[in-house]
Amino acid sequence: MATTLAPQQYQACIEACQDCAVSCDACANACLHEQDVQMMARCIELDRDCAKLCYTAVSFMASGSGFAQQVCELCAQICEACAEECEKHADHMDHCRQCAEACRRCAEACRAMMGMSA
Amino acid sequence: MATTLAPQQYQACIEACQDCAVSCDACANACLHEQDVQMMARCIELDRDCAKLCYTAVSFMASGSGFAQQVCELCAQICEACAEECEKHADHMDHCRQCAEACRRCAEACRAMMGMSA
Amino acid sequence: MATTLAPQQYQACIEACQDCAVSCDACANACLHEQDVQMMARCIELDRDCAKLCYTAVSFMASGSGFAQQVCELCAQICEACAEECEKHADHMDHCRQCAEACRRCAEACRAMMGMSA
Amino acid sequence: MATTLAPQQYQACIEACQDCAVSCDACANACLHEQDVQMMARCIELDRDCAKLCYTAVSFMASGSGFAQQVCELCAQICEACAEECEKHADHMDHCRQCAEACRRCAEACRAMMGMSA
Questions:
Q1: Which of A31, C15, D20, D90 shows a CA-CA span of 20 to 30 A to D80?
Q2: pLDDT by residue (tens digit) across D13-37?
Q3: Which domain of life is it from (chains A, B, C, D) (predicted)?
């Protein structure tokens, strides 16, 4: 529903980026309240970066910006780095497992979007 | 799906804010390409402000911030101002009609959230 | 220099918010690399919130938004909460001491701006 | 003053991005209130994109993010596109002339920063 006003070809990617932004913000906060926070520092950093780029990507796509693709290309890279880190903790922490999945889906959606809008 | 990691009580409000942010960014862009842009200047300004606050509200809620309520309170005010302006153009412009609806839903969700998390 | 295009009455407040946003982002990162991260969790949270609101406030002021005052009012509150937390660590950590000062200056500039622009 | 807590090597680039973000937000707003807004539509779009990336770049640098360089690389591209458009109106509109200069300085600072931090 949320994205019917945005350019049609970006719908799936907007939703994946919205999901990923929220997952990363929530995962960073959950990491910050784990007992061994120090072990989660790298995860918190990447969650933070990934959330920021995802919100930015949503806004560029929703605005129909001519730079939407380039923002999504960078977004895909940061999503993959964040997924990789979250996956290290996925066995023990459900928030990292869920966040890694959201990051993988988002990276895929960004790469699909880049292919489409040539 | 996107918000399952975020605090449970914020789910509906996060979705309404995501929808509203995207609708406002898209509406501003559509307004900017109308023939009579000058008539849409106030709408573009309010779309711009409303989108920014909505993204900010999503991020505060997703992070479980202690200031989420206060950000949502301000968000509701801006949503209402934006809805009021968009409604003036709703008969002639579908993007303004849809955006006004997204803004009204978001304002309502923000006010409901404020009531809940006392 | 940076703000000469922005509304004249906001110059001082824009600069204080820019300073505070950067200080909070930098302090959060420094906190995250302290040995006892757990002790810094609350500080990291408030730095995160404060940075976000400061960037938002800068953008509202630079855009000449009609909601600039209200954003600055909320910004002042978050700055004060962040300053209070940072001050607890100011004796031992220079980043917290500097960040607390930036937050206090920013809160003051936001309150002064609110008084001015009636 | 504002950036003393941020990584030393980013100081100049942070200041240039702060300046550019504010200039673009202010220029977009000034364009929106020109008599012939339609002629300024492209400028408003690029100002909007450029402001967003500049704020994002500031935050990545201030946080000491490992992706700061890549964000600045994209930022430089958007700054150059925005400068090019603003320069078309620079003779008649002082806000476009000043904004174009801020964009050129920012693009240069971003490229210099990318060279430095190998």
A1: C15
A2: 999 999 999 999 999 999 999 999 9
A3: Bacteria
ipTM: 0.95
At how many degrees (to 10) do helices A41-62 and B41-62 cross? 160
Nearest Cα of chain A lies from the Cα of D78 at a distance, in angstroms, of: 8
CA dist C51 and A19 (Å) reads 22
B98 part of a folded domain: yes
D interface test, pick of B48, B56, B59 with most D CB neighbours within 10 Å: B48
Neighbours of D27 (CB within 10 A): 35
Beta strand extents in D1-118 (DSSP E only): none
Token pair 């920063």 in the structure block, residue: D113
Tens of pLDDT, residues A16-58:
999 999 999 999 999 999 999 999 999 999 999 999 999 999 9
CB contact under 8 A, A41 and C45: no
Distance between CA atoms of residues C62 and D53, nearest Å: 15
Domain presence at residue A40: yes
Q: Enumerate neighbours of C (3 or more CB pairs within 8 A).
A: A, B, D
Residue D45 domain boundaries: 10-116
Whether C11 has its CB under 8 Å from any CB of chain D: the answer is no
- Alpha-carbon D40 to chain mean position: 18
Number of domains chain B contains = 1
Residue C15 lies in a domain: yes
Q: Tell me if chain A has a CB within 8 Å of the CB of C49.
A: no
CATH code for the domain of D43:
1.20.1270.360
Tens of pLDDT along C37-66?
999 999 999 999 999 999 999 999 999 999
Separation between Cα atoms, residue A89 and residue A38, nearest integer Å: 13
The mean pLDDT of chain B is: 94
Question: What's the gap between Cα D22 and its chain centre?
Answer: 8
- Alpha carbon D37 to its chain centroid, in Å, reads 22
Q: How far apart are CA B22 and CA B86, in angstroms?
A: 15
Name the residue of chain A whose CA is nearest to D78's CA. A67
